[in-house]
Amino acid sequence: MFTLLSSLPFSIGQVQDAGLIFLSTMATSICDSLGDDEPVNAKVTTTIITLGIATASLGVCLVVMGKLRLAALASYLPMPVIGGYLAFIGIFCLYAGLALCTGLVVNDITSMLDVFTNAHDVLLCVPGVLGGAFLLFVSQRYDSSFILSGAIMIMPVVFFLIMIAGGISMDDARDGGWIDPAKDPATISELLDLFDFSLVHWDQVPKQFGTWIGMVFIVAFSSCLDIAAIELDMGTKLDFNHELKTVGWSNVVSGLLGGYTGSYIFSQTIFTYRSKTNSRIVGVCVIISEFAIVLAPVSVMSYVPRFFFAATLIFIAIDLMIEWLVLTYKKMSLREYAVLWMTFVAVNLVSLDLGMLIGVGIAIVNFLLGYIWLPIVSRQPRSSTAVRSPMERRLLDQKSDAIAYFELQGFLFFGSSVQILDRVQKSVFVRKVRNDIGQMPGDKDGCDAGYLGDADMPLTPVENRESPIECLDGSPAPRPEGLPTEFVVMDFSSVTAMDATAARSAFLILQKYCTNHGITVVYAGALPEIRNVLLKNNIAGEESFLATTELALEFCENELLARTNGTVGVHRSSEQQNESIGLLLHRFMGEPEDSQLLHGVDQFFQRHYVSAGHEFYQAGQSPDHFYFLVSGTVSLSTTVDSSTAPKASQIEIVHPCSMFGEVDFFSRQHRHSTATATEPCTIFEMTRETYDAMREQQPALWTSVRDVVIQSMALSITKSKTSADIAISIKSE
């Protein structure tokens, strides 16, 4: 069935130990249940037929699992765990090879060490070990499959030549343990006589259901594991579900014909793969050979040296163990390499299935430790892209440290809490708290007596001095003379999920600390489920959430500007509506209001009052105007193509006392964005005709206005995010 159905032409499928363990449990259960009074032939017949039914029904389940595409779950196994399993297959092949060489039972480390306590057993193992090393050398040195096949056939030929040269007979070789003793094989008729349905105790079949369920899961898992191991060793993607169906149909046929459960034999499949025998002829040869062995009147093993088959197993053993226990050291991290070794040791100490589970558990712990150490929160210097006046921008630049922006990413879970707490507290700064007598912690008593310094100069009284800053956790700040934090922006745009433990042990504590120091915390771009976790745990209110990072930063900047001294003229929209453009431009430049720099400019600008929703220009239009916003806000947006319909993406918000449209105007490029009033606005408009007229009539004024606009353009370009906005050229007027 493997030869017919498998996508791997060189694949080999045989009876496998994973299912035989459960079948042996069923056989023991049946014999114990029937008791000593039942004839042996009835016990044997009942056992054989029950095991055949169990195997066939197992195959049906595997086919169904393949059709439901459940086999791919095995591909989620970590590579170090699969590597540990492959290394175990290697040492298992070594056990089998030594057992074939000596005729002893070798199935663990202890029994393998017992082999080396007897000098004759060691001598029997030497040809097998040397033969395996020889085959490994040939396979790595030569690419031709014929050379490796020839090397395999040379070994028995050399053995028999040595026997002839030394005058050693077959009986002498058997007595020395080099060849198995002669035995008479069972005949076909004797095998068929075992299937006597009249002797079957059918009541024993349903009693094995529990064991059969366990066998289904273990065989399905081990089969997927074999497929994953073959895929990993080949480096070629395999269809897990197709291969699982191949295993299933093979078990169906095997069970119906009285056979037992099996799967891909990794060692034999990889052996044929590495021998470059990429043909289904391999499977045909195996079928013919096994039929010949069954039909042969003599035992084949009685005429073939033991080390011949042992050498092929030891070849695979050495290859797998070197590749996965040694060479993988340079292919994976140290922790992953440790997981591989621990999986290998666990499988050898306990059992295959439990050892694999232990390996998966260790891999999960390793992943958690690695994930905890990843930087999931970082403070980044960032400001909004809102268009502001030079004065506002200078003010925000001076107080940039007052807004702490934190970018979070990944899955925030209980293991992330310590990192979040530590990094945020180290990056949020507060004023040191004075004691009851107005001193800072650490100040000496009376150091401010008389308020005199070293040069007898009067000092500022203690109660009027600004306290130095410290970190939120009380540790010293990098710059004690810096500004305290007033706003904290938590950017959740890259956070995929968060559990309640991280919410309470990190963000609840941070929220309380910030509230105690009057720091406003806003959350940007949080998913609905993350938002619900923060709300349900009373960490933040609805007003603390903003849809995007841009809106959150703009909100904090607006609040910061609103808290500054009113003499700077920030956001005096109600007063500005009736003021002249000359006065507004003087404020825009930071010039005195009575400056004569822009005298006479009022006649070249036109004042307009527009309602919310008014569109000043669209993307793609000719840039014949630019504007100065007096009151209200204007949104600049671009059109983003999507699979359904074009969508507008907001890129900037223009605030009062700012210009917009001037970059395209001076670069003479088509508009890159659309400008729309988001509320009733008062604006001053400059047209190209008026601008050209000003150059002709008042060149000095035109030069001053151009300097003002260039300064605004510099701010726009600095804050721009798109290359289209940056790649402009200012033509000489």
Secondary structure: elements and pairs:
Elements: H1 2-5, E1 13-15, H2 17-34, H3 40-67, H4 79-102, H5 109-115, H6 119-141, H7 145-166, H8 170-175, H9 188-192, H10 209-234, H11 240-256, E2 262-264, H12 266-274, H13 281-295, H14 306-325, H15 334-349, H16 352-373, E3 377-379, H17 390-398, E4 403-412, H18 417-427, E5 429-431, E6 469-471, E7 487-498, H19 500-516, E8 520-524, H20 528-536, E9 545-546, H21 549-562, H22 573-576, H23 581-589, E10 606-610, E11 615-617, E12 625-631, E13 634-640, E14 647-654, E15 658-660, H24 662-667, E16 674-677, E17 681-687, H25 688-697, H26 699-719, H27 723-726
Helix pairs in contact: 2-3, 2-10, 3-10, 3-11, 4-6, 4-10, 4-14, 4-15, 4-16, 6-7, 6-14, 10-11, 10-12, 15-16, 18-19, 25-26
Organism: Phytophthora boehmeriae
InterPro entries: cNMP-bd_dom, Membrane-Transporter-like, SLC26A/SulP_dom, STAS_dom
Protein name: Sulfate Permease (SulP) Family
